[in-house]
Design goal:
The chain is mainly β and about 110 residues long. The chain contains no helices and 9 strands. It has strands at about 1-5, 10-15, 20-30, 30-35, 35-40, 45-50, 55-60, 65-70, 75-80. The protein has a 6-stranded mixed beta sheet, with no helix packed on it. A 3-stranded antiparallel beta sheet has the order 1-2-3, with no helix packed on it.
Length: about 110
């Protein structure tokens, strides 16, 4: 079970088991864009990939899906983003991120 809380610019993600709580992230999360580092101000969704030790955040303000390595506070935009000029790549407030049985992110 994973739990998360976003407060202001800070994000905490924890893995909770019967006898342990492991902090995956507990910091300000930033995304790398064409404009340099940008704070993520509107986390709207999260999904964890335990196999690769990555987590993915939907950011409503930047209209992006951002990939983070466990323990990292700087992520990389993998879809959408603040500098998108093409309607094909536009994402509006990504939410409900999930993986299918083949490992594709939706």
């Amino acid at each position: 079970l994973y739990v998360w809380q976003a407060m202001g610019l800070s994000l905490t993600i924890a893995k909770v088991t019967d006898d342990n709580v492991q902090i995956i992230s507990n910091s300000e999360v930033m995304l790398m864009s064409n404009h340099g580092l940008q704070p993520m101000v509107s986390v709207s969704s999260i999904v964890i990939d335990e196999k690769s030790n990555f987590f993915y955040l939907g950011d409503g303000f930047h209209r992006a899906v951002v990939k983070f390595k466990f323990g990292s506070s700087i992520g990389t935009i993998i879809a959408g983003g603040p500098a998108i000029t093409s309607i094909v790549n536009l994402i509006d407030r990504p939410s409900g991120l999930t993986f299918d049985s083949s490992g594709y992110l939706y």
